[in-house]
Amino acid sequence: MLLGSTAAAAQQLPPPSDAPAAGSAQGDVSVTIYNNDVALVQDVRQLPLGKGQVRQNFPDVSAAIRPETVSLVVPDAAVVEQNFDYDLLSPSSLMEKAVGETITLVRTNPATGTESRDRAKVLAVNGGVVIEVNGHVEVLRDDGLPVRAVFDRVPDALRARPTLSVTLASNRVGTRPATLSYLSRGLGWRADCVALFDDQSGTADMQGWVTLRNISGTTFSNAKTLLVAGEVGSADDDNGNYTPRRRRVTRTTPGTETAAREQLGDFYLYPLTERTTIADKQTKQVSFLDAKGVAASSGYRFENAWLGSSDEPRSVQSVLRFSNSGAAGMGDALPAGVVRVYVRDARGQPQFIGENRIQHTPQGSTIALPTGDAFDVKIQPTTVSRVKQGDGRWRTAVRYKLTNARSRPATVELIQGGLDWGDVRVVEDSAKGERRNAGTYAWQVPVPANGSAVVSATFDTRY
Fold first, then answer.
1. How many CA atoms lie within 13 A of 93 on its CB side?
2. What is the pLDDT along the chain (463 residues), one digit of tens a residue?
3. Sheet holding 52-59, edge to edge
4. Do residues 210 and 288 touch, judged by C-beta distance below 8 A?
5. Distance between CA 37 and CA 183 in Å, rounded?
């Protein structure tokens, strides 16, 4: 389904229009936001231009613009030079630019209220302001005494707003559309899903939200907004983003269904159905998924490292399994994000039981989402023996003891990893398992209520 705003969010949206918001120099703005701190801004402004070489300013561009990506198309005009002025006007920048210049200090006598004015030369701004006034060198202190600095003018290098300055060679006089396009950092989005799981019915109600974030230093007014699920290639990947290491990995079996959603190359598109203003330093949420009765099940999983032994029983992972196929009740590709899982307690109140991250997931996939560690289902892996059979050959016996303190049976997906370290073969196992890939072997182990189960396996390793 297409991305749509909620009723609450819709009340805050401006009416559909190509007109910019009051006070903004932007024109008809379109913003395409990707997942990896990249956004494409396209801004069409009507410019009254003379003939010959003219200087044109474009205020209200992103403060996080990548100047080397700017493209400007103006009918009957060519770009001669462009500059991005991002040194913004502020009290501190104004004083820094005044070094070597003369300003006026206005002091107020706190006892009488009388004002005095003195001309002062700014000598330095290094952790404080050093001035020369009436033949003396002073430090302009910030001690609460009433004093203010008056500047004769605003330096040319300072701008009230981020501004792109362009020199154009115009062939004629007249107003015409100018299409400004550029890439920017500071704009991003993420997807968050909520799954309300009902173990009795084996279904989950899924709601998905997109959260827009703008820290670009600029508000984009009344913009057509398009979100792209997928990470586009970039020659500069040093975005300063920190990705924490995930201990519980979501396992996905990729699907083969085509989603009924617009695509751009190999990416899926999530357009907002209405224009919206993306204010600077703002987060905004809109809905993109609302699916009821999606087929789902809970289970357990434990993955043991090669030669992994434990002196004490370890908790298995709690896992929610569901599919985003059409037959399962969802029928849509899922963008990368976090899925949070809730279940109802005995009083019918939804309670949070865990969350994890999924990657961009094609429609028809099966997702096994770890939500936490089980309190009362545990496993103790033990390397029973490891005997050398000759040069580069070993025989290893492993025993896995599983216990279940729950009042109902549990099935644990037991995975032995690390089998791609040399040529490792399973020569004997007490339960029927399967080789998933070169590195893993898996068993589905039923563990009775208030009971235990044991799986034994022997591995032959050849280097």
1. 12
2. 333 333 333 333 333 334 444 567 899 999 999 888 889 999 999 999 999 999 888 888 898 888 888 899 999 999 888 776 655 566 776 777 778 788 888 888 777 778 888 888 888 887 778 888 888 888 876 655 667 788 877 776 656 566 788 889 999 999 999 999 999 999 999 899 999 999 999 999 999 998 899 999 899 999 999 998 866 665 554 444 433 334 567 776 666 666 656 666 667 788 888 898 999 999 988 888 899 999 999 999 999 999 899 999 999 999 999 999 989 898 888 888 899 999 999 899 999 999 999 988 888 899 999 999 998 999 999 999 999 988 888 999 999 999 999 999 999 999 999 998 778 999 999 999 999 989 999 999 999 999 999 999 999 998 8
3. 52-59, 163-170, 77-85
4. yes
5. 10
What is the DSSP track for 86-112? --B--HHHHHHHTTTSEEEEEEE-TTT
User: CA-CA distance, 255 to 265, in Å (whole number)?
Assistant: 18
Strand partners, 127: none
Query: Which residues lie closer than 8 Å to 237 by C-beta, 6 or more apart?
Result: 36
What count of other Cβ atoms lies within 10 Å of the Cβ of residue 374? 21
Determine the distance from the C-alpha atom of residue 95 to the mean position of all C-alpha atoms in its chain, rounded to a whole number.
37
Point out which residues pair with 222 in neighbouring strands.
none
Residue type, 448: P
- What is d(CA 161, CA 333) in angstroms, rounded to the nearest whole number? 40
Give residue 342's identity as a one-letter amino acid code: Y
The amino acid sitting at 365 is: S
For the chain, give percent helix, strand, coil, nearest 5: 5, 55, 40
Amino acid at 340: R
